[in-house]
Amino acid sequence: MPAAQRYALLVIATAVVTVMTVSVAYHAVPDRAFAADDFQWVLNVRDRSLSAVAARAFDVSASSHFYRPLVWLLLWSEWRLFGFDARAFHLLSLALHTLNAVLTGALVYRLIKAQSPLAPIVGFTVTALFVALHPAPFEAVVWVSAQSELLAALLLLLASHCWWSAGSSDQRSVYRWGWRVVATAALALALLTKESAIIGLPLFALMEWQAARTAQQRPEWRPLVLPLLVTGAYLVVALDVAARNDLVRERGYGFGIQVILNPLRSLGLIAAPLPGVEYGREAWLPLAGACVALAGAGALFVRWRLLRKGAASLLTGFLALILTLAPAAPFTSAPDSRYLYLPVVVIALLTGAGASMLVEWIISPGGTRSTGNSTVERHILSANSRLLLLRVFVGAATIAIVTLIGVLAVNEIRGREVRFAAGARPGEELRLFAAAQCAEADFDRILVVEPPIAAPHVDAIIHLSCGARTHPMVVGMGDVERELRPNTLVVAFDGGFPRELLRTPAE
Question: What pLDDT, on the 0 to 100 scale, is given for residue 487?
């Protein structure tokens, strides 16, 4: 296939992935408002200058939860550009998600070594659609606060492309080191975006081993010095911040049985993205994940002992999957779908590679040379005909199954959007209600009675809507009378909508 046709097919595949992501699966997301932590992030950057935000973001001593300075800068930039236009925030999330899907497909395209030029293109398309349409990492796409997941994945994918370019390049050593420097810089930016990017260094080591195995050479470990230094410096900062992290001090992390159960639970969430399971609370999820792990081990055994080829590549993929599952393993509570973005990317790589191998088998040429024996040739032709029919049947069945899975995935994404929007609605309704009330009067206090949203989110919403002077407070119905002061507004929720319960006059 000429290079022009090949690139044209890649452009078409990219367009299909974009349309399927933005217009089909996530079509309702841009119309949704902010939710949960979104209000807190917006409040943190709203009234600060760029210099103040940068100083706060990069100040290690000021960080008491996680060290993510690039997320501060990203959200500050979005606020300055878009204000309260949540649609623009969501469109940026969708753009990042689509770009990640395309970059993942491009990585498969570069990794696959096939005789047919069609196999890598199919691998690209399957991989990109897998990332774009898998329901498991849904919250990372629709939650503005989770843009850290998308941006960190983007930077890690760019770093992986650069590192692979260095290992597969036939150019002079200076060019290879140039690629490695760029890859290390992308890794550093990823670390400043999300702590899970700590897996970048071992991923580089896996790619170095894979490239050396492909070239039938010994791995060269010296290039890992650069990312090792960057990762080591980041660890010093991250451990300092972790010492002040409330979740760490309250033992929100540990090394008990959850170190095994959480990765299995995550695999279960990916393998069975059923309605209502996105929060990872179902007891059967670790069992489903164990079945997936056993199936993977079986596939590795078959390749190693029976087929005797491809085992090393499959092992590399499994090790990469383990690395992406590791950051959520110590959680004492069950990890939900927010933490599945990178594992889905790795599984998409494995799926795309498998799809390419299947295409290579289906379209591989058959036939044999003439033997001069008509009886033998008739048997050979009959066998070839049966094999051709088998290939056609397998190809048609695979297309039908993939199409069905795609339809189910889109429906599940839309279902999760409906459920997520319903959960996020009270926060946006409170923001609109508080903004309207504070436009009429300057309240000293706003009491919110038993809201269906978390107290920190209520505080952020009131401060965003009414300013820093107004003091918000979440109370129970029995505490309202005790907390009443002059110039106080009391708000209660009815069916998810806030309403004025009473107000006191100013002194």
Answer: 87
